[in-house]
Amino acid sequence: MHIYKPEQEPAVRSLGPENLLLKGATLKNTKKIYGVSVYTGMETKMALNYQGKSQKRSAVEKSINAFLCVYLCILISKAVVCTTLKYVWQSKEGQDEPWYNQKTQKEKDTFMYLKMFTDFLSFMVLFNFIIPVSMYVTVEMQKFFGSFFIKWDNDFFDPEIKEGALVNTSDLNEELGQVEYVFTDKTGTLTQNNMEFIECCIDGFQYRQRDVRSELDGFTVTDGPVHKLQPKAGVEKEELFLRALCLCHTVQVKEAGSEETLGDRLDGMLPKPEEERGFIASSPDEVALVKGAMKYGFTFLGLENKKMKIRNRQNDIEEYSLLHVLNFDPVRRRMSVIVQTRSGETLLFCKGADSSIFPRVRPEEVDRIRLHVERNATEGYRTLCVAYKQLTAEEYMVAETGLQDARLALQDREEKLMAMYNQLETGMSLIGATAVEDRLQEEAAETMEALQGAGMKIWVLTGDKMETAKSTCYACRLFQRGTELLELTVRTLEDGRSKREERLLELLRDYHKRAVQDAPPVRTGVVTRSWCGSQEYGFIIDGATLTLVMNPPRDADASLYRSLFLQICQNCTTVLCCRMAPLQKAQIVKMVKNSKGSPITLSIGDGANDVSMILEAHVGIGIKGKEGRQAVRNSDYAIPKLKHLKKLLLAHGHLYYVRIAHLVQYFFYKNLCFILPQFLYQFFCGYSQQPLYDAAYLTMYNICFTSLPILAYSLLEQHICIEILLDNATLYREIAKNAMLRWRPFLYWTLLGIFQGLMFFFGVRFLFSNPALQDNGQVFGNWSYGTIVFTVLVFTVTLKLALDTRHWTWLNHSAIWGSLAFYVFFSFFWGGIIWPFLKQQRLYFVFANMLSSVSAWLVIIILILLSLLPEILLMVLRKPRGPLSRQKKPGQSNVGGIPSSQSSARPLLMRTFSDESNTVILTDGCCHTSLLQASEGALLTGAVGWDHQSSLTSADLHPLRFNKTQQRFQLESHDSKSHKTAPSRHFLL
Amino acid sequence: MMASSYNAKEEDGHHHPGSVGSGGPGGVKSKKPDNTAFKQQRLPAWQPILTAGTVLPAFFMIGLIFIPIGIGLFVTSNNIKEFEIDYTGVDMSSPCFNCSQNYSWNSTSSCSCSVPFTLDQAFESNVFMYYGLSNFYQNHRRYVKSRDDSQLNGDKSSLLNPSKECEPYRTSDKKQIAPCGAIANSLFNDTLELFYIHPNGSRFAINLVKTGIAWWTDKHVKFRNPAGGDGNLSIVFQDTSKPVNWRKPVYELDPNDPDNNGFINEDLIVWMRTAALPTFRKLYRIIQKKKDNMTPTLPPGDYILEVTYSILTINVTPDYPVRSFDGRKRVILSTISWMGGKNPFLGIAYITVGSVCFFLGVVLLFIHHKYGNRNNNADIPN
């Protein structure tokens, strides 16, 4: 890029990915910038990762539709049967039109087939109540009101962000109880994305801060530097190391009050002590390192005019001019800075993964430090090695020109730069190593264990490297000591020296044999994980290999690869997918979602890169984490912390599912036994579509008499109380696979409805073989008949619900008994008045007369009892299912009592590398996105604000994260105003 | 696209009182949900569990209560005396055969027949006389709706303009029919009389009371004669026509008793209460017990049922033909108990259910005793 200014030589600057201003960037330190749009269209990152938000429908709704079809068939067949029988019956002499019941002229004139058709339609209308239209209303109400319980739950309230759970959709409540696959993001979801400097190793000596960890995740900075280092290494080495930490990074200092862009919001804030500074970096590791150095006395003060300022232990300000930043990239896995001291020395500081540093330093230095690094790695920390090198003036000149050339190269810029970097970063001397901990979310391991105990398969989808992700999986107890890991990564593919495709197939077949064929046949959903005999498998795959699996070179193999892969995955308790592009995450989710048995999937994530996966899964959960609100906004439910997932699924999900499943079945049942007597009555009234019940009863049945109890039930029922649900994750398996809405329970309910309908009708039919039911010899007519049936019906279905209710709150009581009382009251009222607007006073005093008859009472009582008898019997004969009996069940996967702490789960571990957690680089495939992703990686760690004029911060890249940081910072500062006396300040990042 | 949804939700959030952006200047107000029992799903609740332990006593109780009730019902039902006479006249030999035939009688002469029968047992207390029809679809939809309740309730405008539902029994001779509709039109109009044949051969007519056979509310509220005419119903009904099948207009149903005439004629009211099933009985008359309480209402002996078929006006058809649709006509004499007429069903049902419950109780007790000990503790209801 040539910049022309008057009276100046044109300066040439390079424009790279780091100059790219990504979506949502916020301007800082400047009012405006000029920008050039590079590309618009369908291949931008946003468009590529965008996924149409489709309507999510729960499995319960699908079941409802299936049941509805059955009932529709019942309805139509009833109507057809009645119509047919009607014409059969009428064909007999004298039946159709007896002398006492002549047709009108119009009826006589009507064409025969038209009459048949209208008869059919009349029957449809008569029986249409079998289709529970009101169920939809009730289901919607249940979902809507039910979702408030998530919002209201105090356990979901996070005092840190002062927010509870958020429900974006109420359609999927019950789906929370059906989850089989959990797809989780790693950074920010399993881990806090909050790095903490744990220890360092200088020249082979270990330095560890032994102060107590502050409550918040930042450091407590007390007055003055902490001198807790035992002078094991030489002071010189020590200071060199700390200087390296202070210089070798791309962190920006954000001093409170100096933010002009924040404007008025910060007015009126107290001037803060100098220590209270925030650091902004795209990588939390770097912040942790800078803070770590600060703890040991070296404070990074900021970058001004390409000069980095450091205050050392003697409180002197040291200045270094920053000459070059050799950006981080995931292939090199290191970054360097070249700085010049005041005395004119040119120094190169380099930090990076041990594997990338060790070969570039003198071997004799390595051994002393390697031990520490490996021990730290095993403990689950992210380790980094720090090295330096002094450059002579000549060396620097060569480097300078080389770098400049490479940056301006129009072709192969990347390669040239890379070569230059590699050339520079050689022959360094190792000064030390750091260990940074990416702390797990609170109770992450317990949550994961509970979910696994509940029979869910957990997939970790992350953009991270395999090693990092694997260590997290161990820390979360997703992988355990006994877990056999099946690895399918670029590395394993290259081992065989055969073609990658062949090797892939070979490996897939091998794993398939091990995990699927040799494994004992287990039925999904009934598998008990704690049944320790069987081998557990974990599966690891990376993005590149996944691309290969999904899009194999030959199309013919596609289904084979896929099915092998899926079968392996289905038999693994945990699958780890690393180096995933956001859209690949969604692809995985989609693949599992569409696999055999269409399992219910749940995605949980906190960042913008999880959005596509959140949208794709049946249930998307957003974590109100640090990476902005993008995930939260696109999710179906948002919770503040990962640990809340346990209650959300095990308690809320379980209860919602049971409630709605019962609601659905009950609705079908109650409408069936409502309309069956009416159907049967047709056989006794010449198939004349005579309704058995009065119109008011027909209308009010679903609306008034039987709706409230089931609504109350479906909102309040806790067949097992919440604590027990949380303690025994295995209970979740009992409702797995839509257990309560499968055909068997549906058949049971339907048979129950038919049985009761038959009871109601024929019980009263036999009573009416002599309609003289009053003690004064007077007789009852057809409306009395209907009213007796209806009374039995209303009482039976309500009492049936009462029998099913395990959790009687006062609301249940009032709904159930209130409904019955209302029915009685309404019947009196409806029959007590000659209604002027009614053509026929059919029910006039029918109900009251019914109650005056002892026989009617007796028949009502016995029919109710008889209808409920099988239900009671079944209930007794079944295993007792009470809250108390639950407790007695041996808690197989009791996860409640295990003390939660990160230290308890410090497992064996592979090596970890401290590099940018969000780096996404695909070695091949996904060609569209690779440039942008590479740029993301580069931007994240490199080039933050060294070019001050450009005034872009790393926050361009993760604008939301940045915004969030700002907000949190303000929030805290606001707090600090009210607690002026607080001695220590928190750094929030 | 995303951006727009973003904004929408942002705004949404601000609608809620107390919802504050996490970093807003006013962010001190906590969004912490209320800690109420309802919102936390911690309402105090009664959690009953039905187990063998709790249900067992209930089963025994049901058994113990139901069996006596059932026996009581059964005995009561058995004690009710009922006598049924079919006078349809299907057989050539039956006395009413002639009257039931179309061709056998002409419109000028009425037709009556006498059916002799013998009561073996005395009928104590009030005896209720029902007529029963079989295969008569009073519950046919077209039939059930063919009435105008507001006309029957004495509404003047409905009297002269009856409901369309009454078609084709709405008008005749350009006059509105009162009472209109198929139900009223087909009012049962056989006249039934009962005679006791004294052992000495003399014949005593038995007094049949024709009131008290309809529901009180029907007679006094639901059915009312139209006002006006100074009590002279013929004036009130002067602009209306009698139902086609009727022999006499509505105001001549019971000319002797103004309280039983017109719409409030109890025979009409009883008939208007449509039966539930095609085979039904309706209360016709009440034979009141003798004052002296010494002799039974109907002593055992020979009786004669005198059936008078009424004459149809123009059509030469028998008045109440049922044979065209295989119907039957019966007369039932029955005493009544507290549970109504004779019906063994309830008694049997109660005895059965009671015994079943008792039996189940025993079985459950057995199961409970044998297998239930292990989880006895689990049976304690909360």
Structural class of chain B: alpha+beta
Compute the gyration radius of chain B: what is it?
A: 33 Å
Output the strand order for the largest sheet of chain A. Answer: 3-22-21-20-4-16-19-18-17
**What is the share of helical residues of chain A?**
40-55%
Taking all residues together, what is the mean pLDDT of chain A?
77
Strand order of the largest sheet of chain B: 1-11-3-9
Q: How would you name the oligomeric state of the polypeptide chains in this document? A: heterodimer
The tally of domains of chain B stands at: 2
Q: Tell me, rounded to a whole number, the average pLDDT of chain B.
A: 81
Largest sheet of chain B: 4 strands, antiparallel
**Poorly predicted parts of chain A:** 211-229, 257-275, 522-533, 881-989
The ordered string of helix (H) and strand (E) elements of chain B is HHEEEHHHEEHEEHHEHEEEH
Quote the beta fraction of chain B: 15-25%
Question: How helix-rich are the residues of chain B, as a percent range?
Answer: 25-40%
Q: If you compute it from the alpha carbons, what radius of gyration of chain A comes out, rounded to the nearest whole angstrom? A: 36 Å
Largest sheet of chain A: 9 strands, mixed
Descriptive report:
- The complex is a heterodimer of chains A (989) and B (382).
- Chain A has 989 residues and is α/β, with parallel strands linked by helices.
- Among the domains of chain A are: 59-90 and 108-127 and 652-877, no CATH class; 191-210 and 234-255 and 276-439, Calcium-transporting ATPase, cytoplasmic domain N (3-Layer(aba) Sandwich).
- Chain A has 33 helices and 22 strands.
- In chain A, α5 (133-152) packs parallel to α24 (707-716).
- The longest helix of chain A has 39 residues, at 644-682.
- Chain A starts with a strand and ends in an 11-residue tail after the last helix.
- Chain B has helices spanning 2-15, 52-79, 141-144, 149-152, 156-160, 182-185, 216-222, 233-236, 266-272, 344-371; strands at 82-86, 111-119, 127-134, 171-172, 175-177, 191-197, 203-205, 240-241, 280-287, 301-309, 328-335.
- Chain B is extended.
- Chain B has 10 helices and 11 strands.
- Chain B has 2 domains: 56-80 and 339-371; 83-336, no CATH class.
- Residues 1-29 and 375-382 of chain B have low confidence and may be disordered.
- Chain B has 382 residues and is α+β, with helices and mostly antiparallel strands.
- Helix content of chain B is 27%, strand content 17%.
- The two termini of chain B are 54 Å apart.
- Chains A and B meet through α5, α21, α26, α27 and α28 of A and α1, α2, α3, α7 and β9 of B.
